Amino acid sequence: xxxxxxxxxxxxxxxxxxxxxxxxxxxxxxxxxxxxxxxxxxxxxxxxxxxxxxxxxxxxxxxxxxxxxxxxxxxxxxxxxxxxxxxxxxxxxxxxxxxxxxxxxxxxxxxxxxxxxxxxxxxxxxxxxxxxxxxxxxxxxxxxxxxxxxxxxxxxxxxxxxxxxxxxxxxxxxxxxxxxxxxxxxxxxxxxxxxxxxxxxxxxxxxxxxxxxxxxxxxxxxxxxxxxxxxxxxxxxxxxxxxxxxxxxxxxxxxxxxxxxxxxxxxxxxxxxxxxxxxxxxxxxxxxxxxxxxxxxxxxxxxxxxxxxxxxxxxxxxxxxxxxxxxxxxxxxxxxxxxxxxxxxxxxxxxxxxxxxxxxxxxxxxxxxxxxxxxxxxxxxxxxxxxxxxxxxxxxxxxxxxxxxxxxxxxxxxxxxxxxxxxxxxxxxxxxxxxxxxxxxxxxxxxxxxxxxxxxxxxxxxxxxxxxxxxxxxxxxxxxxxxxxxxxxxxxxxxxxxxxxx
Length: 502
Prior knowledge:
Layout: H1 9-58, H2 66-80, E1 83-88, E2 91-95, H3 98-102, H4 112-116, E3 117-118, E4 124-127, E5 132-138, E6 143-151, E7 157-163, H5 167-215, H6 231-264, H7 270-300, H8 307-339, E8 347-350, H9 351-361, H10 363-369, E9 371-374, E10 382-385, H11 387-404, E11 412-420, E12 426-434, H12 455-460, H13 467-478, E13 482-487, E14 490-498
Parallel strand pairs: 9-11
Antiparallel strand pairs: 1-2, 1-7, 3-5, 4-5, 5-6, 6-7, 8-10, 11-12, 12-14, 13-14
Helix pairs in contact: 1-5, 5-6, 5-7, 6-7, 6-8, 7-8, 8-13, 9-11, 11-13
């Protein structure tokens, strides 16, 4: 079977890696161009201010030790790569560069910035009255500087300048480095992804092959567990568990079919029942097996590559296997009720307690869907029947109400009532849920095995179409009334049960 290369997990991972790297490179280039220059000038400005503050605070008004004074200034200038000039009027107090002094021979007549440099108002980086910092270009040597001009507390005037390298060159060099690293990352990533994807795609392909064989009802092949503890290993365990359950289910079906074949000789109607049974099972198993295959192929094609979604796929596969197992068990029970002389273990029990237990078991679903349940009975009411089968009837009615409930008048409501039945010595239990009415033509059909009013919605909500057929079979065994009525804003199911009497 030829595979489309564009759908290959390896190609998808490689292309994704390339796109991510290119996006990262573009991001860093944009940040580099937008921020580096501003950061560079900000750093130079702050350094100038720090040197000025240091000189202003540490140089005394009356210089007592000129040699120590000059040494301290020289150290400050060297550490910060600055040229420092301090003047008292036209007299030079200190200069780190002797040539720098000659530039100030007419300092009182023409400001240095005007005489020897080119600047604009936009070149002013900082100004607070006493201190001014600006970018200048020396016209004599075409060198860029940052110049700080300010007065000291001792009355002297200080000039601090530092040459600045063309920041554009630095940005360009930085961008080229990013380009080179990006290309190297794509090449190395491509090589690495070739080996890495093989490790992940190989077991997924194996799982897909196993799922395909399972869809053909071949359960001999198993996935070899590596005990790595990762999601693929967990999926392999789920597939193996699913295979075992499906094989067990098929074996049960074979046994059931064999038992049914034996009963054909004693009962003329068994033949039709067997055909119907096989038809129903075949029809109902196709959907979960197709879902299992679809989700397995989804894992192979890496439709959802994150860990959480892969786990979800595995859970769906396992859930479908559980549904198949429950389907077979309920179908077998239905068959026994319909075609065998099933004996019930009738006894006295509290129907109120049983209903409350059914409601309690569905609390999580009720809370999730924000469904309000109304059941007002508090005191025990004793009835006489098989509590196991009556619980199935109540559970089927209640779960059916949850599956088909719709919001009416801004609320979702399930109302359970116990009242006197139409027959003497019997109680009638009703289960009402808000929602859409059932079409009149479907009111009698819903009790038929596997009949579903809305096939797609019933499947999505977990229905099998057996629940109401079980209710019918149980009530027929008790010769009790049961049924469904359309009500305003909803539907009401009911059944009768014998009241316990001394």
